[in-house]
Specification:
Layout lengths: L7 E9 L3 E6 L4 E6 L14 E6 L6 E7 L4 E3 L4 H11 L11 E8 L3 E8 L5 E9 L1 E4 L1 E5 L5 H15 L3 E8 L4 E6 L5 H13 L2 E9 L4 E6 L3
Parallel strand pairs: 3-5, 9-12, 11-13, 12-14
Antiparallel strand pairs: 1-2, 1-4, 2-3, 4-5, 5-6, 7-8, 8-9, 10-11, 14-15
Helix pairs in contact: 2-3
Length: 228
């Protein structure tokens, strides 16, 4: 996913009301940026942090994409992972799903939910694929999800389990918008219910995958798989 024009650096003044952040631009002026993230952004909202902005597409002039940490940039735009995975699926760049050439997004299933992607092969076999954005890293090299209570994500895992029980494949892909993590696990201390749902879904046959990312002012690229 390329950024055109390249992202603009700024300094975070404060994040507030979940979806807003005040920033100071390089010319010394202040602006308000949209933050496409409803979570806590644990560890990524410290005033004074360097952030990277894209031109806004709505009422605000800017959209916040990355926050710099001492070891990596961290992507906080929760819409970006679906775009990355859509590109990777179109390019057949995810070997674990290469058997499914047909891709549909936002298909209704489960308890009034929409799966991120429904993959099918020429014989009509199906794989239900949910995408989760990950940016939390509290221990060197370890990515964790979620960074706050995530009841909706736990429900998605239960719904994927039901698809496996019905005879389909189902998978969750955790897109780690960081470049400093080599392993992934659920953040059981922050959301025990999600961690329980994760373990139960995995035991039921839901496939769990995690991929890191490569980030720059010019592009966000889905990287290689990491251990779970």
């Amino acid at each position: 996913m390329r950024f055109s024009p390249p992202l603009t650096p700024a300094t975070l003044i404060q994040r507030y009301k979940r979806f807003l952040a005040d920033v100071r631009l390089a010319d010394g002026s202040n602006a308000t940026a949209h933050v496409a993230n409803s979570g806590k952004m644990l560890g990524l909202d410290a005033p004074g942090s360097t952030v990277w902005l894209a031109p806004g597409t709505g009422k605000l002039a800017w959209s916040l994409k990355f926050v710099e940490t001492p070891t990596s940039w961290a992507g906080v735009d929760t819409h970006a992972p679906n775009k990355l995975v859509a590109e990777a699926l179109a390019a057949r760049a995810l070997p674990q799903f290469a058997a499914f050439p047909h891709v549909r997004a936002e298909v209704k299933y489960g308890e009034a939910s929409r799966v991120d992607f429904l993959l099918t092969d020429d014989a009509g076999r199906r794989c239900w694929l949910e995408i989760k954005n990950v940016h939390l890293c509290r221990t060197a090299g370890l990515a964790e999800f979620p960074d706050c209570e995530a009841a909706r994500s736990a429900r998605h895992l239960r719904e994927l389990s039901a698809m496996v029980e019905a005879g389909d494949r189902a998978a969750a892909l955790f897109v780690i918008q960081r470049a400093d993590c080599t392993t992934f696990r659920p953040a059981a201390d922050l959301d025990p219910a999600f961690a329980k749902a994760f373990d139960e879904a995995r035991a039921a046959g839901v496939e769990m995958h995690a991929h890191a990312c490569v980030m720059s002012p010019e592009a966000l690229v889905l990287g290689g798989a990491i251990a779970i």
